[in-house]
Design goal:
The chain is α+β, with helices and mostly antiparallel strands and 625 residues long. 44% of the residues lie in helices and 20% in strands. Strands 13-12-16-10-9-18 form a 6-stranded mixed β-sheet, with no helix packed on it. A 5-stranded mixed β-sheet has the order 3-2-1-4-7, with helices on both faces. Strands 14-15-11-8-17 form a 5-stranded mixed β-sheet, covered by helices on one side. It is globular, with a radius of gyration of 34 Å.
Length: 625
């Protein structure tokens, strides 16, 4: 019904879809929102610039540290400790700057940001590790350089000053601990999550620390061991055992001569010498030799000194030799040290040539040939040979004891010989042996862990002569996962070559060829090879030319062993391959140890040269599963 009143039209309602957009637009254009976003943006921009600038400065500081590190190394090597000290200060300053630039709150907060965070953490960790090495390793060691300068460690008039080494022990121990911590922190970085430039830098730093680790360890071990072994805490007596690689034994060679070295308060003297043949044999073993060892190498290990090192387990062989000496001569033995003519050639580089009573001039270049070949042509009687060997040992010992020998060169030669396993050391003192156990000097059987299989390849002469002067040998090894259960299979290939002249049976002395005494045709070389597999593993096969090869299968301290014999006429070669199943390993990595041998061609190997182990690409189709 009309009322006469007019109602105005309602304003149109805005479209429902457009309404939220309008509201968002009004919120976004609110002055407070603009302020907040501006602040956030400014903070983010500031943080990015801050981190970028500090990262650039840290990178520059680390780059500048490299020349300083090189100057430290060069100065220490030349004995210029003043220059080394200044370079160490600069190195510490540069790495300290890098560490400070990468450890502020803004940097560490940004480490929580996805993707970029792990890269920042890696850079900070690397800078901190570098600073640790500079400040807590390099600087203290350089400062203590006067006390541990290798030049001051030479024996003078039969005496070595031990007090500086003893004083340096706490500093060196702290430095070694700091280095191990820095190295572990870098090793813990997962480079798979990093951008390439950062990952590459971490890998390089890791490589530098890995390269330096043996030197740091060697210094720490030397400072810990030398004082006690040289009688700082009371007299010590050691057997110095000369191994003859012309007649191989697992640890390096037949024990041809033995000397008793006495050390007391740093004074070192040669007490007694004996030919290996003058000690024993005995009707029954004079030492405790495990049944497993006797099963592989026979009962002579505990009865004949020359056979004590048929076993590659040097701590066992050394303890056996020590017991044989005390049984023959009484007294006590605190340790056993092995050397061979290759080690002698290295020492002669430090001492210079020596003149023997025979008139021969013994040098680094002729020692191996003179002592392992020429002597047998010159002297037919073993007693004459032994006298010549004793005169050579005495001449070199007297030269080293007289003084004037560069201690650095002397210890470098010993260190190189230790790396090549030509110098082995066993101590009857538990604290010393614990330190040795972590080094190549210990001569222990190879160790295995979850990621790596320890493999050993050892040679024992079975000709009964000195023909191994002409034996060439090579070892190759590889591992691959060929089974559904993921357990790796390892293949070890051993190649032996008789490099003696074709007329060796007639042209070489009977003492060298053996003259057929043990059933070996003169000129031939018969070798027993023991290949040790990883702890807990299984021996799968021993083959040559695609066929099974005769072997004695055994176990030595939980390690599977293949023991086989190879006989070669001059010019002949033979390759035998051994397969193992790595039961306890989850990766295909290998660590292979071998008997140190001669090249077989009459040349002198470098004292530090280790037998190269060639890689094998394992074909799963040829593996016994």
């Amino acid at each position: 019904m009309a009322t006469g009143l007019t109602v105005p039209d309602a304003p149109p309602r805005p479209d429902s879809a457009a309404q939220p957009t309008a509201r968002r637009r009004r919120r976004l254009t609110h002055p407070a929102g603009i302020t907040v976003l501006s602040v956030i943006g400014f903070v983010l921009l500031f943080a990015i610039v801050w981190i970028g600038v500090r990262g650039f400065l840290a990178q520059r500081a680390l780059n500048d540290a490299v020349p300083a590190a090189e100057r430290v190394t060069s100065a220490v090597g030349s004995g210029d400790l003043a220059t080394a000290g200044r370079a160490a200060d600069e190195l510490r300053q540069r790495t300290g700057d890098a560490a400070a630039l990468t450890s502020d709150p803004i940097w560490m907060t940004a480490e929580g940001v996805p993707w970029i965070g792990p890269n920042l953490t890696a850079v900070r960790t690397a800078a901190a590790a570098s600073n640790t090495v500079a400040a807590r390793v390099v600087k203290p060691l350089v400062a203590a350089g006067g006390a541990i300068d290798l030049r001051g460690l030479a024996v003078t008039n039969g005496h070595m000053e031990l007090a500086p080494l003893v004083a340096a022990q706490p500093t060196v121990a702290k430095a070694a601990t700091a280095f191990a911590a820095a190295r572990a922190s870098v090793a813990s970085i997962d480079t798979g999550a990093l951008v390439n430039p950062v990952a590459g830098g971490i890998d390089r730093l890791h490589g530098v620390l890995d390269k330096a680790a043996p030197s740091v360890q060697a210094l720490g071990n030397a400072v810990r061991l030398l004082p006690s072994m040289l009688g700082a805490g009371g007299p010590r007596d050691y057997l110095l055992v000369a191994q003859n690689p012309a007649e191989l034994r697992s640890t390096g060679g037949l024990i041809g001569a033995v000397a008793l070295i006495h050390a007391d308060g740093g004074a070192v003297s040669l007490q007694r010498q004996s030919a290996g043949t003058a000690i024993g044999p005995w009707e029954a073993p004079v030492a405790d030799v495990p049944l497993a060892t006797q099963g592989l190498y026979g009962p002579l290990v505990g009865r004949y000194l020359q056979d004590a090192n048929l076993t590659p387990d040097f701590p066992l062989a050394a303890a056996t030799a020590a017991r044989m000496w005390t049984t023959a001569y009484g007294g006590s033995v605190d340790g056993v040290i092995t050397v061979d003519p290759v080690v002698l050639s290295g020492l002669l580089k430090a001492t210079g040539p020596v003149t023997l009573p025979s008139g021969d001039r013994l040098t680094s270049s002729n020692a191996v040939k003179l002592l392992l070949s020429d002597v047998y042509r010159r002297y037919a009687e073993p007693a004459q040979q032994d006298a010549f060997f004793a005169s050579a040992a005495t001449a070199v010992f007297d030269r080293m004891s007289a003084g004037g020998v560069d201690g650095k060169k002397l210890l470098s030669a010993f260190a190189a010989a230790g790396q090549s396993r030509r110098v082995l050391i066993w101590s009857a003192h538990g604290s010393d042996q614990k330190v040795l156990a972590g080094t190549t000097l210990a001569g222990a059987l190879p160790r295995s862990n979850l990621s790596s299989a320890g493999i050993g390849v050892y040679f024992n002469d079975a000709t009964g002569s000195k023909m191994d002067y002409y034996l060439g040998s090579s070892v190759a090894a590889g591992s691959a996962v060929c089974r559904a259960d993921g357990k790796p299979s390892t293949v070890v290939s051993v190649t032996l070559t008789n490099r003696a002249p074709a007329d060796a049976g007639a042209s070489l002395p009977r003492y060298v060829t053996g003259g057929g005494t043990y059933g070996v045709t003169p000129g031939n070389i018969r070798t027993r090879v023991a290949v040790y597999g990883p702890s807990g593993g299984l021996l799968a096969a021993t083959q040559s030319d695609g066929a099974d090869y005769a072997t004695v299968a055994g176990v030595d301290t939980s390690r599977p062993v293949s023991l086989f014999t190879v006989e070669l006429a001059p010019g002949q070669s033979k390759t035998v391959s051994v397969q193992f199943l790595n039961v306890s390993q989850t990766a295909a990595n290998l660590d292979v140890v071998t008997t140190p041998t001669l090249p077989g061609d009459g040349s002198t190997p470098d004292v530090g040269a280790q037998k190269a182990v060639a890689p094998i690409v394992v074909q799963c189709s040829s593996v016994v599963k």
